Amino acid sequence: MGLVPTMGALHEGHLSLIHEAKKQKTYVVVSVFVNPTQFDDPADLESYPRNLERDLEMLERNHVDLVFAPTEKEMYPEPDQRTFNFSPLDKVMEGAFRPGHFNGVAQVVSKLFEIISPDKAFFGQKDFQQLTIIKKLVEIQNYKVRVIGCPIIREKDGLAMSSRNQLLTQKERKEAPYIHKVLIEAKSEAKNYSPPEIKKIVSERITNHPLIDLEYFEIVDDKNLEPIYTWKDTINPVGCIAVKLGQVRLIDNIYFA
């Protein structure tokens, strides 16, 4: 049994997870549920793109075995009061800017694991911190599920595929690939600079863009998410970024190894 958890508004990134689940010869279950407990901003929850009819057509075309598309009442017949401790993984980056976000993620993913009982679950590496925390969730709860991270799928111009991309205006969408461009430049320049210097360079380049507001850029160890200060501090340094482009929040990451 292979589970691909989604919040709908499906795109090629989601399909790549489905293709990987098929490649691994699993019975493919795709969940479609916009989980309210992981949104710290009610306006963000309200504006999140939803199109279940289109999603179902796409899933049918891609020969998914089962779709689980519950209502909010089905998933939360009563308020979920559970709290999870992922410290320090959930205290940095997304955790610092979106209080309670990862607790909400853990609530819904734990419910999906318990309802569906998958052997494998497939998540995109675009949500890098989320992937790390879900692996920790499996460890804490002792779930018998293997969490598989799948590569970021990008548009031809480099923008990481995201359901939120469709909320961008035409002008914003044209500027959005700049985020990945800066990350690529930083990777190519890393041999000449320390991680804190690269962090400063990236922050300045993003901040200087007239339409993009930087929330954070951190270079961390890919396992414990601790900031690194020399390239020798970790085998696999990863740079994680979050920005606001207009009203739309976008995240991306890149391995420096």
Structure overview:
By secondary structure, the chain is α/β, with parallel strands linked by helices. It folds into two domains: 2-150, HUPs (Rossmann fold), CATH 3.40.50.620; 163-255, Pantoate--beta-alanine Ligase, Chain: A,domain 2 (2-Layer Sandwich), CATH 3.30.1300.10. Helix content is 38%, strand content 19%. It has helices at 12-23, 42-47, 52-61, 72-75, 94-97, 101-116, 128-141, 170-175, 178-189, 195-207; strands spanning 2-6, 28-32, 66-68, 120-124, 146-150, 212-221, 237-245, 248-255. The strands form two sheets. It has a five-stranded parallel beta sheet, with helices on both faces. A three-stranded antiparallel beta sheet has the order 6-7-8, covered by helices on one side. A hairpin with a 2-residue loop joins strand 7 and strand 8. Helix 6 (101-116) packs across helix 7 (128-141) and helix 9 runs antiparallel to helix 10 (195-207). The longest helix is centred in the middle third of the chain and has 16 residues, at 101-116.
